[in-house]
Amino acid sequence: MTLIGEGLLQQVNIEDFSPGKVLAQLQEYPFVFEFLRSKESALGKVRPVVTFMCALSIWAFKQVAEPRRGVPSGLLFALWDKIAGRKDVGEMVEEMEGNLWRYFVDLLHAANKKEPLSDKEIGTGALVYAVVLMGLIFVFWPQDKLPLLQHLLER
Fold it and tell me: pLDDT for 3-51, tens place per residue?
């Protein structure tokens, strides 16, 4: 199941996401902003890609759905604890929101070509973005689709 279609992502112009617009998107969802700030030092050179993708993901979800529920305090930190170290995080997120995940992976590849990133930076960036994306899925997905998120986290 995915809410975000490829067509919407093809409309994105990265130049339209100024630092001010990125910050505004992130501040609209304080749980994302707080989580990113807590992981800032661990992200290293991949931080701009992850930050941009989090803002883009918020924007994309808002284009296709209204928020359906609030986020329990500490949800992203709990998700981090639950999935850190798992080898299937990319597959899990791709199964839920594959278009956003592939867009993120493509940006990571482009950033890595421009300036080589360490495996640790790539892994941490992927994990941070996956956690944020899961949090946004929790906020925006219809109630009847949330069992997929629960199922993937339990396997």
Answer: 999 999 999 988 889 999 999 999 999 999 999 999 999 999 999 999 9
Among residues 97, 93, 92, 69, which one has the least CA distance to residue 1? 97
The verdict on pTM exceeding 0.90 is: yes
For residue 87, what are the CA distances in angstroms to 4, 57, 116, 125, 126?
24, 23, 22, 14, 11
The H helix count followed by the E strand count for the chain is 8, 0
Residue identified by tokens 């919407």 is 8
Rounded to whole angstroms, the Cα distance separating 61 from 117 reads 28
Q: CB neighbours of 39 closer than 8 A, spacing ≥ 6?
A: 124, 128
CB-CB neighbours of 65 under 10 Å: 14
Give CA–CA dist 62/123, Å, rounded: 27
- CA nearest 29: which of 142, 138, 146, 110? 138
- The reported pLDDT for the residue numbered 68 is 94
Query: 123, 84, 119: which is closest to 134 by C-alpha?
Result: 84
* Residue at token pair 């597959």: 91
